[in-house]
Amino acid sequence: MRDERVKWAFLLPAVGWILTFTVYPLVYSLTLSFQDWNLTSPPRWVGFANYLRALQDPRMHNALRITGFFVAATVTVELVFGFALALVFHRPIWGSRALRAVVVAPLFTSPIALAFLGMMLFHEEDGPIAHLLRMLGLPRVHWLSDPATALGSLILLDVWQWTPFAFLVFLAGLTGVPQEPIEAAIVDGAGRWAVLRHVLLPLLAPVAVTTILFKFIYSVKVFDLAFGLTGGGPGISTEVLALYIHRQGLEFFNLGYASALSYVFLVLVVLGCTVLLLRVRRLYEVA
Question: In this predicted model, what pLDDT tens digit does every residue of 25-50 receive, in sequence order?
Answer without folding.
Answer: 999 999 999 999 887 778 889 989 99
